[in-house]
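Please go through this protein, sequence plus structure tokens, and consider how the sequence yields the tokens. Keep your notes short.
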Amino acid sequence: MVLIREMPEAERPRAKALKYGIRTLSNKELLAVILRTGSKGISAEDTAEILLQKAGSIARLSRMDISEFVSVKGISEVKALQLISCFELSRRSSLESTENIDVMNEPSCLAEWLKKEIGSSMQEKFLAVYLNKAMQIIGYRTLFIGTVDMSGVYPREIFREALLMNSTDIILVHNHPSGILTPSENDLYLTKRLIKAGMIMGVKVLDHLIITQSGWLSFHMQGIMEDCVEGSVKD
């Protein structure tokens, strides 16, 4: 019997996965399995290592575009698409896991999807997630990209989408590229203003989530939404 260490280098990660399971593979080995082959003078594992060094992390790797991938020796457009497709399937899987569940009772499922959707973005993004009466997601929209404040986030856009989807309950979401989960004064002010606008429109703002690459914070779970509704946040 041929031992894994005696196999050609390009076959080792695949053999290891088949024998011991995919979870035993390192990040580099997983990438090597997807890449399958290297190029002249460089193995798939060497190429995977270069990719990881270039990206700095798997999260950063997941948001690289085709041009960044093909700048690495041994990565063709086809291989770049294979990698991007893997990350996109992961994102869609997380979104699919939120279907048919009450996201107010199981916010972690929503947060896990949102971390893949916007958590690793270097730009601040503002989303609204629209719910039906059973608190299930019926749609979502990215409504603003940039510094999130009242001058850039337009209530009419948020609540127009709610009316179009026949949604009476929404969850506000934005990411903090800094990685800091603490709400800013502007986050609190914006939340209060949108809650008030929602009351006029007959749409209830149930929560506001802050998302980072590795974590999330719920205003509802922290009791912050109550403060916003009661008007304790200064205008």
